[in-house]
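User: I'm writing a tutorial on reading structure tokens. Could you give me a worked example: one chain, its sequence, then its tokens, then a sentence or two explaining what the tokens reveal?
Assistant: Sure. Here is the example chain.
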Amino acid sequence: MRLFPKDRDLSLPLERADIPVRASDFQLKPEELNMRLDAFLQHFLHWRSRTSIQRLIHDGYVLVCPARPDKPAGSDEKVERRPGRKLVHGARVVVVIPDEHRLELPSGEPGKLRVLFENEHVMAVDKPPMESVHPGGRHLTGTLIQRVHAFDRERYGDNKHYAKLCHRLDRETSGAVLIAKQDTSHRFLMREFEERRVTKEYLAIVIGSPELDQGVVDLPLGPARASRVGLKMACVPDGLPSRTEWRVIERFEHCTLVSCHPLTGRQHQIRVHMDAIGHPLVGDKLYGLDETYFLREAERGLSPKELAELGMPRQALHNHRLVIASPDGSGRIDVSSPLAEDMRKFLQTQVSLGGAAL
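And here are its predicted structure tokens:
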């Protein structure tokens, strides 16, 4: 059940939640639904207590549009201050989010958004490290898509066609992100990703020096069942087929810059595959030295000593290049993002042993 509009400007604070009253949400027939307003809201706003929901109703933040045979719900919103008000199938409930609970969403300095490519159908932007691509979990503001929406509002004013992400990068991963500017373009580009017709090249700094100059990791991936971290993946016999091509770009005394081409799109694929051949990414808290770095960061944050042990405060992974068909059929779009500044500076501190030019 979606509480908030799917297509909206994510750079603006959310002002209301619009919830239709549907018997199917409670596994009932339409004629069987007869529910108190506070119980209905607690079903959807499950993170709030019944007392806080009743206070929200008493304070006038809840409106009800009753279902009537002669008029569809939606036109007569009226404040309802009775928690025990009965709702029937077909009504609609609107929760106005109080000012003090609205997230303050800064513009994110939209003018500083780095656009790598743009035409009337698509744009590619450079995502900095440590920025989520979309709101979620502990990171509800300051995300990439919020900055893109603010950027569009700055250019176009009240825009009704909100840009949409075509793929995702982990919060710590930097580099090129493709964004569709219309729904038709979004459907086309998503299909290209799903059918693996997108060429992707990542740059990674791995610990140590691979014996070969290039290779292919062809190992199935699935959940790491023995891990304490639920999202961790591993190479497992019963996993999904996963294949990554890699080649050395430059060797350093204690690390190596490699180019990785994931031929499948599994979660954490490059990180798991490079770890599987004995060369995890520098700064990787989950697949690098020890997964307890990940657990400690989530619990209390890492100390300067622990960060120094990792080499970098984030996993050294950068989405360097994307090649994809243009939605208008005019050919292929080829987008490149230069190596992120923190990765470049890290390599400058290392002793180069030579290698192929980037």
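What the tokens reveal: The mean pLDDT is 86. The CA atoms of residues 35 and 87 lie 5 Å apart.
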